[in-house]
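Field reference: sequence -> structure
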Amino acid sequence: MKKILVLLSFILISTFSIAQNNNFSDSNPPNIKDVSFDKDNIILNKKISYKYDRNEDLFTIKNIDGKKLIEGSIKNLGDKKFETTINFLSKNIKFSNPKIIGRNDLIFALVNFNVFNKNGTINELKLEEFIKKYNIL
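Structure field:
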């Protein structure tokens, strides 16, 4: 019986620790359940939702019509460390967070925080909350 209690305690502590490590989460269930990427696209819920361009250390995320939404730059700091500065063009706000390096990290963080609506469009209010909560600039 003692071993079972110890095992259950360990499982509960491990589960709590894992939940705490997901820093970019919202308490609501995610609107987007499937995220994938190809060279030129960001695919949300199995639908191409955004276009992606990268030129060396600079990247741009555009809507399907080609309107620029996000611009970013990735800086190599050495020792396999990188820093990304992101400009949310609709808000004219520069954003950086050491846990978000590049397109994939950004999209997964936005998905986890429910910034995207079910149809893949950006919820501007949730985007503002995300920026306020996680921006270190």
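Note: The beta strands are 35-37, 41-44, 47-55, 58-62, 68-78, 81-88, 93-95.
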